[in-house]
Design goal:
about 80 residues, 2 strands, about 10% strand
Amino acid sequence: MGEGHFARLSDVPRKALSLSIPAILAVRTISCVVPDRRKAEAVRCALQGPIAPACPASALRRHRNCHLFLDTESASLLDCPR
């Protein structure tokens, strides 16, 4: 709720699904959509930091069919040639 996706606590779904990294990596295809500047550091860590438990999303780099969709803001901290 604190990220602004829901206006009121009553709008937040009562149930959610949580998966372990091994369960996520066991699927055939992974699609991740990462919008917003608030996620830029996590994106940088996942794509350019070490693959380590400190950044669970870094494990996605070991999957052979993972698609990451970023907007300009979420990709803003990446070191990329321009």
